[in-house]
Amino acid sequence: MSLAVLCSRALDALEAPEVRVEVHLANGLPSFTLVGLADTEVKEARERVRAALGHSGLPFPHNKRITVNLAPADLPKESGRFDLPIALGILAAAGELDMAALGRFEFAGELSLAGELRPVRGAVALALALRRAGSTRTLVLPAESAEQAALVQGVDVRRATHLLQVVAALRPGDAAVPLPRAQALPQPAPAALPDLREVRGQSAAKRVLEITAAGGHSLLMVGSPGSGKSMLAHRLAALLPPMAEDEALASAALQGLSSSGFNVAHWGLRPVRTPHHSASAVALVGGGSPPKPGEISLAHGGVLFLDELPEFPRMALEALREPLESGRITLSRAGRQASYPARFQLVAAMNPCPCGWLGAFAATGRPCRCTAQAIQRYQGRLSGPLLDRIDLQLEVPAVKPAEMLAAAEGEPSAVVAQRVAAARERALARQGQPNANLDAAGLDQHVRPEAAALRLIEQAATRLGWSGRSLHRALKVARTIADLAGEDQPGVAHVAEALQYRRALPG
What we know:
By secondary structure, the chain is an alpha/beta fold. A hairpin with a 4-residue loop joins strand 15 and strand 16 (337-341).
């Protein structure tokens, strides 16, 4: 009887717990058994491994009873990432590989029937888990996955394209041929983002967009069709400062868990997600079996743009309430629980009424034909608790064609981004996070308006019937406006401007 033990990793939300792959060969009726809460995809590894070893000219113990245990047994395992360690474990148990060398590596990779290595999901998450654990093992991955994992500093990642390469590196004695070290691909020049200078007029909306970028706030724009809401939203990403390394790694790890995977060319770029309004609640917040991240997690560190906000299913919109407040989403299922970061900037756009022309007659000559009840029902699709969590709410008025054509070009995004970066640096130096992320204790410590400004916002909150959350969010916006002005304390002018950006929907 022979036993071989290798190390690999499973995926559990954004974590990658260690899995010990134990392969046992014994005499008896020939069989190939997989145990350890393996999913269907993992159980299919039996056929892939058998074919890959045969096509690669490597021995397969057809006359042995093969038992493969994936420990711990209570941890769900999915996908074909265990093909490579299972194949190597069979060879090691048969005496073909150096048992001592196996302990220095961790393996993950899917095998084709010809023995080629195919990429696996979550390569960045695997490397991050290895670094967090402080392990000195070397991570062996398929070439494409290894290039992604190499973005994580401090982890030794080796690349391989075929099973025979890995086998050659694990031969006993001097016959071993080391695997090449994986190198992150050089980053191409980022594609040019839409520039703010292309937006004619709408000076108030541009100002709000600058505040949104500087403080990391959420934004709702209400206006008639063609007023520039979508155009403004698509230009927010160009105003945001570059991602820090931790943010970029978290974003890359989340992208790697999605069905489309992570593109190395997008490394360090803030994600911009624009789901269609037919998206379900599961598509937005995540779910499935096993649970996968949704749009709000894939937008972590970036922008989530929801156009035609009232057209989204109500259940999907209500599911945004918790992550807007906490920056995380926890998916609870009967058998397991998954938690993903979801610190995104929500930018939403909507028409003021079903026909879209409410309040636009002076600029367009098109009257609104909706009844008061229809307008109320349309705007009522957005619940009060959801609107309460959106920091900035702005009406984007329609612009007359003559005024639009006569308007000069605005400031380019690069100039506005410099002011945004300076304001963010002030906030990070003061409190270590953007203003939008401050909790109640952080507000008391870092947002101290002048006495006159405090009286003004208190009077406004009382008259308008604001909740405590609305009051706090207005204070955060005032703190951001003061940062853009280079002031240590929010003054009356800063608070007064912040009050304008929490107006109720028209109608």
